[in-house]
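FORM 7B - TANDEM STRUCTURE REPORT

SECTION 1: FIRST PROTEIN
SEQUENCE AND TOKENS:
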Amino acid sequence: MQFTQEQCQMLRTPKVIALTNKNGMKIILTSLGASWVSCIVPLATGKRDVILGAPNMAKHMEQGVYLGATVGRVANRICASQFTINGQHYRVSNNQGNHCLHGGKDNFSYRIWGILQPSPQKAVFVLTSPEGDQGFPGRLYIEVSYELTETNQVIIDYKYQSTDYGPVNLTNHAYFNLAGEDSLRTALEHDLQVHADAYLPITHDGIPTGEWRDVTETSFDFRQGKRIGFHFLQDEEQQHVGGYDHALVLNKTLTDGVQTVATLGSPNGDVKLNIATTMPALQLYSGNHLVAVSGKSQTYTTYSGVVLATQFPPDAVNHPEWGEQYDSLVQPNKIYTSQTCYQFLFWYLYVIA
């Protein structure tokens, strides 16, 4: 879904908010989609924006690639846009052929969220999704908070509660380019390490086959770290979808929200990003469908950025055999929380008065 000009005029004007820390790092957020639209790190060589974003709010409304958005109710894909819970069959909105992607045609990335700023370094977004929204059961209440710490961490906390049984899988869809969103260096030139022993094979339209496959001796083995472009498109799995768009199952001994589960490094090594999370999987997406997307400083093209989205595995609601740890199903009136922390490591820009 993309907004028409008339719809844009009818919408309440989205709010934009900036969080800063004492080191000179700054992130910019918007209430449209509870989105993370800018991340400026103060390097010794100058300030650098390391996530992709639209040049203005009008263009942000037009883009359909989820730039920095909070996506849901269910991130990733639901096969054939249907599932069954306690004998009740549900059909939800389809927006990728016959399948449901990131919550359907009118998913959370298109909503204007309420916003609060309790401190200069924290913002809280709130949204209520009504019963039957996009076909999903239950009324869902969500809070998503962003905090920028003095140690250059961007901590995203998710809190939600539903009035009925149903799947919920929230994540952030930021595209990272640690060389700078204005750089011609691509996601394929970044170094990546992910502590994941298995990945989910998928069909041509990105739906998991149900198998969990050992990453050993496959292109999906990032345990020791390697350049994303190494082994790129050299197997049928990647060729199905034009690159990486696969869930990596994280080492469950590390998903405590404190230990690092993944590290992304810039092409020349001057910026690193460590990720910690309480979620069991990470969707690695190499930006395969970034085609002529209006960006802050240039037009983004294929592989301009990489998404590292922490979440439950895709289509988990249709695979109870994967186990409770990987199940996105919530119980009524129970509060659920999750957290993902992005810590940026870099040489500072010192300003001499």
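SECTION 2: SECOND PROTEIN
SEQUENCE AND TOKENS:
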Amino acid sequence: MSVHSPLIGIVSDDVSHPHSMHMLKEVTRQLSARDRLPVLLCAATREDFQSALRNAASLPLGGLLFLSSPCQDAQEMVAHLLPSLRAVHLCPSNSAGADVVVADAYHAGQQLGALLLSQGHQRLGAMQVQASDTPPRQVQGFIASLQAEDKTLHAALHAGALHREQAYQAMMAYLKKTRAAERINALMCEYDELAFGALQAVRDFGQGAHIAVVGFDDADEARGSTWHLSSWAPRRDLLVTEALNRLLDQRPDHSRAWQQGELQVRHSHHGKYVPGEMLQCGCAIRH
């Protein structure tokens, strides 16, 4: 397996997800600029990934890039089945030896928390994909921002999957079972895809419910008039550049400038109608 091979394996458990699609587009663009070609290894389960690696063993791959991980021991499987192949993860990894290049999600969570707190929201919650003993980094940062203001997380919601419909169902269930006076008035979502489902649930529930919602990833839809979602945007171009520099050139940038991102402030963090420019949009937060 040579780093000079034009073929680079791209691992994803779901390329239909907006985040994976954006990352794949950027990876393909930058690989093309380096005269390399992507080979997609799509695997939703551990068994699928194991089979994909065995099939890839016949290819002269120059390395692996993980857009998402199909299982917790993915890095260990690569080390076992393709021991000479370098791998870089453009996603979180539980493997101690994994080379990970991800945005500073903790800082993103802190910024999103500060944005919601600046609006005077008193009861705040978070929605993440899966329940876990250790929350995702953006949720950890969000909780830290609340603690800094002597506030606690009032609700921890779990969608169960990174799908809008799952988030919709989780939010709707919460609205139905929680008394109006006890409901959160602001929600931070682990990803924009969850935020869209949560916003839609608030709109469909009606009954005067107003909940501010913010997300992470700045998906294309976030900018549209349907959502006007306030979200934290990672620099995908810098992340991919850093990952390829490590994978192909063994040249890491220890300054971590590639972890930067930017808070995109729109309307959804208000939680209710605000006079002015909101009059011109179809923001889902309005009823």
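SECTION 3: OBSERVATIONS ON SECOND PROTEIN
The mean pLDDT is 92.
The two ends are 58 Å apart (CA to CA).

SECTION 4: SIGNATURE
Preparer initials: ____
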